[in-house]
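note to self: dont lose this again. the chain is below, predicted strucutre after it. 143 aa total, dont forget to put it in the shared folder this time
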Amino acid sequence: MTGFLGSYLHQLDEKGRLALPASFRRAAGEAGFVLIHGHETALLLYPQAAWGKVEERLAELLQRQPESKASVLRLTANAVEVTPDKQGRILVPERLKKAAKLDSEALIVGVLDKIEIWNPELFEMTTKEARPGFEQFVRQILV
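---
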């Protein structure tokens, strides 16, 4: 898999279904996804293979830091497995839509091994701010 790249603005229908870009569905394969509210302002959508790695890290964390159990529970309690239907749509449960402040539109953003689902306005506010050191970061990574 080359990873998830790019961003796509899509509509949420009246039932809370969101169409995933065909390239993202192809990159993930047939196994489906895990949808989770793991970021303050966005939902995270992991293909099953990538989610397996997250589960391993969570299990290790629980072993090394038992006091993290409440955080792990909070994270996993709202996770849901989703499989695109024949039209490539996933159902975003109401509680997750509310958590990410999604209304009628969602920005679907590829972030290498996962997909983030954002309220377009929140994404714009988060990413438009100039970050000190961004040019140095780009040169370090891309050159």
